Amino acid sequence: MILDGKKIAADIRAELREQIRSLVAKGQRAPKLAVVIVGHNPASETYVANKMKACAEVGIESERIAFEADITEQELLAAVQRLNNDPTIDGFIVQLPLPEHISETTIMSAIDRRKDVDGLTPENVGRTVQGLPSLVSATPKGIRELLARYAIQTEGKHVVVIGRSNIVGKPIAMLLMQRPYLSLPGMSAASLGDATVTICHSKTQDLKSICLTADIIIVAAGCPKLLTAEMVKEGAVIIDVGINRIDDSSVPRGYRLVGDVDFENVAPKAAYITPVPGGVGPMTIVSLLQNTLQAYNEHSR
Ligand code: NAD
Questions:
Q1: CATH fold of 32-112
Q2: Is 95 a catalytic residue?
Q3: For residue 69, how many C-alpha atoms fall within 13 Å in the half-sphere facing its CB?
C-alpha cells in the first residue's frame, strides 16, 4: 500500500487552514514565517517557492529574504539577529545548503530556538532528545506523522534508519525510540515510539543483513536504488526520504526525481511504501507549517 504523503499533507493543510481562519476571525493576526535564501541554487529556489506557496494556502504570511552568495558570515548573522528580535516574525528558516565560506553550524546556532521552525538548532535537537517541549525537525516530524495517520505501530518494532544526518537520520531515530509519554507537542503521534532502532551509514558493514531484520526501513542516504528488493523482508514498511535528480531526456526539464529505494521491485514486497515524489517531501513542508503555528501559539501567549 502506498503511503500517500501528498494526500495526508493536504488533509493537514486543511486542518491548519481552519485553525488559522478561526484565530483571525477572533481578531488575532495571522502567523508569519520568514525564509532566508542565500545565492541562486535552483533546488533551494524551488523548495523556498513551495514552502511559501504552502504558507499562503493555509493563511500563514511569509516573507522571502534573499542574499547574494557573497554575503559574509557576519552579515548573515546580523540578519538572523534581526529576525530573532522582530516581533512580527513567529518563525524563520535559513534554507540550506549555505555557500562554503559560511558555517552552517554557526548560523543554525544563532537562531532563537523559539523561532527555529526547522528544528535544527542544537538547543531544539537536545530538547527533542530529552523529550522536552521543542520544535521538532521538519522531516522526522513529517515521517512520524505519516506513520501515525496510517496507524502504523512502532512499539517493539525493529526500525533500521539508513543515514546519520543531523536533519533526518539522527532525529528520526531519536523520535522512534522515545518512550511515548515523552512525545512532543504539536504531534498527533502520541502512541509512536518504543521502537528498537539501528542506525546505518556509509561505513556500515553488511547493510543487507541488517535491513533483512527490519520491520520498518527509513532510507535517507541520497543514493538512487540503494535499497533493493533482496534487502527487504516480506511485509516491511519502507519510508524513502531520498530526493535525487537523474537525467531523463524523455521529459522537457531533462531530469526526474527518484528516491533511494528501487521502488518498482521493493513495492511488491512492502506492506507500506512511500513514493518519490509525493511521500515524505510534502510531509516535510506541512511540518514546517505546523511548527510555525506552534511557534506563533507559544510566542503570542
Ligand atoms: P546527507 O546527504 O547529509 O548524508 C547522507 C547519509 O547517508 C550519510 O549519513 C551517509 O553516511 C549515508 N550514506 C550514504 N551512502 C550510503 C550507503 N551507500 N550506505 C549506507 N549509508 C549511506 O543526508 P540528508 O541530508 O539526510 O539527505 C539524505 C537524502 O534525503 C538526500 O537525497 C536529500 O535530498 C533527501 N532529503 C529529503 C527530504 C525530504 O523532505 N524528502 C528532507 C531532507 C533530505
A1: Rossmann fold (3.40.50)
A2: yes
A3: 10
